[in-house]
Amino acid sequence: MTCREAGLDKPSKGGTPAETGEVAAAASPFLLIVAxxxxxxxxxxxxxxxxxxxxxxxxxxxxxxxxxxxxxLAVPRPGAxxxxxxxxxxxxxxxxxxxGRLLDVGLGNPMAQGFSxxxxxxxxxGLMNLLTVLDVSxxxxxxxx
Amino acid sequence: xxxxxxxxxxxxxVSTFFAFLWRPAxxxxxxxxxxxxxxxxxxxxALGWLMYPFP
Lengths: 145, 55
Description:
The complex is a heterodimer. By secondary structure, chain A is an all-alpha fold. Chain A has helices at about 15-20, 30-35, 40-45, 50-70, 80-90, 95-100, 115-140. Helix content of chain A is about 55%, strand content about 0%. Chain B has helices at about 5-20, 25-50. The chains are: A mainly alpha, B mainly alpha. The interface between A and B is medium-sized, with 21 and 12 residues.
């Protein structure tokens, strides 16, 4: 993948975009979608290997903890507006969310002792992954190293 | 299921995440990790004690 495909505009003279003040208008949508779908992959494409590994590890660990505690991968329910917020956060997990729904894990057991904690971990994992997408966008645009 | 262990595990994950998100490297990263981790764990324990007299 070239720099332009990854959303990276090469600086015209001297240093990185962050140093020269040159900022791209937007990162590649492909890059952002990939960063959302697979935790850490956006950073890996941008050659931030350590951050990619840490983000992937943290997000997957939080997700698996949530599943192990019988948390629910939220789906929107009519008449329950907060379920939409939980859904928006949970779908932030990308393929982990879709894989979990396909494999029938993360259905949630409200009678389980860890249900609320599990939901918290799943929501946290999704929100952290969405923050990594914003980080990938900032790096690709040259706003951040 | 130990609530304190779960809280500590959650604090560890979140602190690690933000340390790597907000600091480029080195000492600043370690300091941010420790600061957020201690605030979350100690703050939750302190808040728990403060709430203890209330029903």
